[in-house]
Specification:
single chain; about 425 residues; alpha/beta; FAD/NAD(P)-binding domain; 2 domains; five-stranded parallel beta sheet; four-stranded parallel beta sheet; 13 helices; binds flavin-adenine dinucleotide
């Protein structure tokens, strides 16, 4: 009989871990409650963007070799990081939503305000390199789209782009929305769903085609389909002969949503059971060994037993870690996080100080197998911690969030016996 694994959390780390476990022949169950950070963040995979002094990293994989063992990548090791990212690239290609990028190279992608940020792997709709080949950039805004400013992006691109001969302009697209959405702000997801319809697509195509002159690149919010598919991108490429790059917009994040759907589709095809609205609230542990975890649903308490458990419940943002004044803890296995009692020491006085913030690095300490430890002592022998719950990195400062999530998920899933 195959061995079993229960994964707690259905964010990027939990879903990717599930894919790897199922591929390795484990009976895999994901207990998922609430939305992961993907719903707010984009689907781009930062691996390592800036060192601790804020210097841009060109080769993330090479940099990982220099990290201490307190950093999650230091525990995972560069070889496993490379294998994890290449596996992610391969799975996304098989799912016909092929991520782009090279694990040895950071690319610069435009942000939702027209600045640039380093990242490593990008969804097919965010190929930063296209900017270098464009003679004309047209920034598209959409009437009614909340907090998305095409003129601001345009202005900042003019300031930031080295290629002075490139013409940069902006324009606004008007799509008709039914009365139900006319009563509220329009989100990028509404527009993406609209462009997935034949009428919406034709309307959009007709409004942009007169802007195509020479090598034209359109920069737009993430609206090129609500599904993890390149059909719309490919169709536009053929029908109007232009390129497109999406930039982020206000949540719900469409690129994050597509990545989540892609991973769920892959996992389900591999036979993973994903149980939603399953809030894990406790565990049964004896002699450092977990036998089951418990969920509290609408009706009753359920127990989920397994040979192994992967804790992918995220950080404070996803409720995987809980904070109180002077205290932080993980609530399912009751793991205390070593934090200063004096809350003032949790952060530097100013948020943007050009160095990592202490609070951002707090999380669960582990050994090199990602099993939780306290002062070097193993706490649980069949529980592995992945993703944002791990200690030792400030994803926001160093630009490593989804990279650590994917690589730790792969590492833990590969270690199960
Ligand atoms: C605003 C924002 C922007 C970001 N931008 C980027 C970016 O551009 N690039 C990048 O690489 N990274 C980015 N990140 C970081 C990245 O999104 C996270 O590091 C990564 O998604 C963490 O994934 P995770 O699976 O570990 O956690 P999460 O995504 O938080 O998922 C954890 C899941 O577990 C669930 N859960 C929690 N407790 C329980 C429980 N008791 N029972 C069942 N389920 C539970 C949560 O509801 C959630 O669904 C960003 C993060 C944020 C917040």
């Amino acid at each position: 009989m195959s061995k079993s694994v229960v994964i707690i959390g259905g964010g990027i780390s939990g879903l990717f871990a599930a894919c790897i476990c199922a591929k390795r022949g484990f009976k895999t169950t994901v207990l998922s409650y609430g939305q992961g950070a993907l719903a707010a963040a984009g689907g781009i995979i930062d691996v390592f963007g800036y060192d601790e002094k804020g210097k841009l990293i060109h080769d993330p994989l090479e940099h990982i070799n220099s990290l201490p063992s307190s950093h999650p990548y230091g525990k995972i090791g560069a070889e496993n990081v490379e294998a994890a990212l290449n596996t992610f690239l391969k799975l996304s290609a098989e799912a016909k939503y092929p991520y782009k990028g090279d694990v040895h190279k950071n690319q610069m992608v435009p942000t939702g305000i027209g600045t640039f940020k380093p990242t490593c792997l990008t969804p097919p709709t965010i190929d930063g390199d296209l900017i270098n080949h464009a003679d004309r950039i047209v920034v598209l805004g959409f009437k009614g789209l909340k907090d998305y400013f095409a003129d601001l992006i345009c202005e900042n691109l003019r300031r930031n782009l080295p290629k002075s001969s490139c013409e940069i302009l902006s324009t606004e697209i008007l799509l008709n929305f039914e009365s139900s959405s006319a009563c509220r702000d329009i989100s990028a997801l509404d527009i993406a769903r609209k462009l997935d319809t034949h009428v919406g697509y034709l309307n959009f195509r007709e409004q942009i085609k007169s802007y195509v002159k020479g090598k034209t690149l359109f920069i737009l919010p993430p609206v090129l389909s609500a599904s993890p598919s390149t059909d719309l991108l490919d169709l536009l490429d053929i029908e109007i002969n232009a390129k497109f790059i999406e930039v982020s917009a206000m949540p719900p994040s469409v690129t994050g949503y597509r990545t989540e759907l892609m991973l769920k589709n892959i996992a389900e095809k591999l036979g993973v059971e994903i149980i939603e609205k399953a809030h894990v609230f406790a565990s049964e542990v004896k002699d450092k060994h977990c036998s089951y975890v418990m969920t509290q649903g609408f009706d009753r308490i359920r127990k989920y037993s397994a040979d192994h458990f992967i804790l992918a419940s995220g950080g404070v943002f996803g409720n995987g870690l809980v904070t109180q004044m002077g205290r932080m803890y993980e609530p399912i296995f009751n793991i205390e996080i070593d934090v200063p009692k004096n809350q003032q020491e949790w952060s530097h006085q100013y948020l943007f100080t050009g160095r990592p913030q202490p609070f951002a690095t707090y999380g669960i300490e582990t050994d090199n197998t990602l099993r939780p430890t306290n002062k070097g002592q193993l706490l649980l022998d069949n529980v592995y911690v992945v993703g944002r719950a791990l200690a030792g990195y400030d994803f926001c400062f160093e630009k490593s969030g989804n990279g650590v999530a994917i690589c730790s998920a792969y590492h833990a899933a590969s270690l199960l016996e």
